Amino acid sequence: MGSCCSWLHSLSIMLAFLLLPTALLLLLNPPPPAHHQAAVDRRLLPRRSPETASRAAAAPSMKRQRNQMPENEIERELSRARAAIRRASAGRGNATAVFSRPSVYRSPAAFYQSYKEMEKRFKVYVYEEGEAPLVHVGPCKNIYTTEGRFISELEMMSPDSGRGLRTADPRRAHAFFLPFSIAQLVRYVYRPNTHDHAPIRRFVSDYVDVVSSKHPFWNRTAAADHFMLACHDWGPSASRANPFLYNNAIRALCNANTSEGFRPRKDVSIPEINLVSGEMPADMLSPPPLESYPRPLLAFFAGGLHGPIRPALLRHWKGRDPDLQVHEYLPRGSDDYFSYMRRSRFCLCPSGYEVASPRVVEAIYAGCIPVIISDDYVLPFGDVLRWEEFSVKVAPDDIPRLKEVLMAVPEEDVRRLTAGVQAVRLHFVLNHPPKRFDVFYMILHSVWLRRLNIKVAEL
Ligand SMILES: *[C@@H]1O[C@H](CO)[C@@H](O)[C@H](O)[C@H]1NC(C)=O
Ligand SMILES: *[C@@H]1O[C@H](CO)[C@@H](O)[C@H](O)[C@H]1NC(C)=O
Ligand SMILES: *[C@@H]1O[C@H](CO)[C@@H](O)[C@H](O)[C@H]1NC(C)=O
């Protein structure tokens, strides 16, 4: 019960209380219990929690800030950032010094500048409405790790310091985050085995109604500066609950399937990360130098028969060829699983029930070149990263020729791609607290780029 991120959440509550000006407020506003056992219906309508009420009380300077930050100041800031990025990409910036391998970026100078502009200017307002465990927290282990960790990390950042990414003053915000967790809604609101998404959509629709009637910001841009994030397969479906959320808002999704309405210019593809225990595996946190691993195996895959692509992979390759280790089942996170990945040059990442696969990130952690086998999948951070510098794409129709295709990659390309994998690793790592250029900030940077409405790749 409760959320796997409850340790993170309790920490955030503790921090919030440490920051409170008087002990009186603490007495008046006890923290909400970490584990909600009450019937789901009672929670369907988002409410203001005692915790958030006290947070608002702790922001006395809001009125003053409001007057200093009229709406068009936000627009002026965005255009200053755009101008700086254009200048940098025109040659007056030097990202070569910062990035270990500039060739993995579409435009290293533009990316580095847009990242610095984000650090300098970007402010996110997180709506306070709603309560855990449906809003403000998420699962922090297994397949929905990215969703839970993003929501929890953002919640834990103090909005009051004026320096960080979060702001307590929505008038200073460039983006507004809707902090509900689709994975938590599936867990607590969905009735198992009904395949009925309606209760989840009802919650999302109610949530949007509350924030759009209580605050002026949703209507001001018809949701274009609002964003949600979901790793659960039902994220796209849940976002259909409100037409503005679906059509105008920025949807950060693991399930970035263009056939399901994912729009690369507006939406954000985020990597799926599966932390079995909620922790980064120790040997992934500090991997031995890649060169010290001989890679005697050509390729590796282990996984279930999910979805349209994997049956072909298993039919053609399971148990067929010792160079291509294709298994139907190997315990995830087991020593075997990662050891196969570290002994393989290529790690196969076919779509399962949904386009994204946590294998892409696992391969990157293991220094193994991901082989993307999917249709309609928009790869994460693709507007910044040059995926062709650290992965290989194989069309599902080429599965019967897989060995031939991979054998045909020249030795020198294997070395280039392996070095690329090593260079992008930092962008896929979860840190607590988040670190510069890690997956948390890369997700935010993708949202920032969409607010700038700029494509660094085209500069
Ligand atoms: C950029 O930095 C690199 C490494 O410090 C240096 O070798 C290169 O000359 C610099 N390029 C420019 C245009 O300043
Ligand atoms: C935003 O628009 C909706 C629908 O038109 C309306 O019901 C709501 O009251 C508006 N919100 C505000 C704060 O004016
Ligand atoms: C992508 O979306 C289409 C349309 O809903 C669906 O048919 C397809 O199976 C999806 N792909 C995956 C891998 O789920």
From TrEMBL:
Matches recorded under InterPro entries: Exostosin (IPR004263), Exostosin_GT47 (IPR040911)
Annotated region described as Disordered, given as residue ranges: 38-73
Membrane topology: Single-pass type II membrane protein
GO cellular component: Golgi membrane
GO molecular function: glycosyltransferase activity
Domain of life, source organism: Eukaryota
N-terminal signal peptide: 1-23
Ranges of biased composition (kind: Basic and acidic residues): 38-50
Subcellular localization, as worded in the UniProt entry: Golgi apparatus membrane
Exostosin GT47 domain ranges (all copies): 118-408
Keywords: Glycosyltransferase, Golgi apparatus, Signal, Signal-anchor, Transferase, Transmembrane
Alphabetical list of Gene3D superfamilies matching this protein: Glycogen Phosphorylase B
Family to which this protein belongs: Belongs to the glycosyltransferase 47 family.
PANTHER family, per database record: EXOSTOSIN HEPARAN SULFATE GLYCOSYLTRANSFERASE -RELATED, OS04G0109900 PROTEIN
Protein name per the record: Glycosyltransferase
Organism this protein belongs to: Platanthera zijinensis
